[in-house]
Amino acid sequence: MVSLALPTGSLEAPTLELLAAADLPVSRHAPRAYRGTAGHPAVDRVVFHKPREIPVIVAGGTCDIGLTGADWVAETGAKVEVVDTLDYSKSTRSGWRVVLAVPEDHPARTVADLADGVRVATEYPAMAREYFRRSGVRATVLHSHGSTEAKIPDLADAVVEVVETGSSLRQNDLRVLDTVRRCGVNLVANPSAWADRTTRATIRTLSTLLRAAYAGPLHRLLTIVLPTDRWAHAEPLLPARWWRLDTGAAPGLVVLQGVCAAPEAAGVMTSLVERAGAIEIVETPIRRLVRDDLAGAPPRRDATH
Ligand SMILES: Nc1ncnc2c1ncn2[C@@H]1O[C@H](COP(=O)(O)OP(=O)(O)OP(=O)(O)O)[C@@H](O)[C@H]1O
Ligand SMILES: O=P(O)(O)OC[C@H]1O[C@H](OP(=O)(O)OP(=O)(O)O)[C@H](O)[C@@H]1O
Q1: Does residue 162's CB lie within 6 angstroms of at least one atom of ligand 2?
Q2: What is this enzyme's EC (predicted)?
């Protein structure tokens, strides 16, 4: 059994949605309660914490595993095992960025155009210092505790800040000068918990459930009926992963299934109809998807066809 730290704030709602989709539904006696359960025998308790504190809490062993922003894993330098990265954020199924931003009318085109002594406000002083060290610009980094954009122009000339949709930067007449780091949500584990064989197996099981629930809705299952004699036209148009269904389809027909990224489904379907004479295609949403290449492992040679 493991204890799980979950993020409050921006990541709270999408994380709870993901856990529910992974059949790890979190229940609490009240919406603002910080403790709960995850409806799975492998999780003994759930505790909500600020995302910036989760890496340190997990490193210290108060919780065995946690979900939190990769920005805070990097910023704190906490000694945790990063088990997986899931690219979702407050409002999208993609990650977010920590960026260097300056006022719209600032003349700089790149970070190198910033003068030595530039004042930079940020919630990420360690990340910002490392970024400026690599860039060769001597910046004065000011630790901000939020509402960072407000520090310009009185307290700072630039910010190192989270951007997702870009709306906050636009509303404060700022623009992105450079990306400091791309971020997603990290599943992190305490190193001792990870070193224990039984606990590691439990963490892997939970990681697989989360990854499957994350990946499923981003993909579609296509079931395709083709005239056998159009096979040569169809093959190059199929999704990268496909297999033949030995269904005893009507003579002269072949039935296939394939999985593709959701945004590609419409294109695959229309090209198979228009260029390969497909006579029926069914697109099915996917609730959960486990696939070796999505888990970061190299695809097995014998995985499909
Ligand atoms: N669109 C987003 N906006 C802000 N944070 C996001 C977004 N997407 C993901 N995150 C993650 O959530 C963290 C912010 O968490 P939270 O909403 O609790 O804000 P906070 O700044 O830590 O606290 P507070 O809102 O109380 O100042 C970010 O540091 C980042 O790791
Ligand atoms: O690109 P966007 O979609 O606008 O999202 C990014 C904004 O959201 C966060 O602010 P938050 O609401 O956490 O307030 P804070 O700055 O006080 O932490 C972050 O600090 C940015 O300001």
Answers
A1: yes
A2: 2.4.2.17
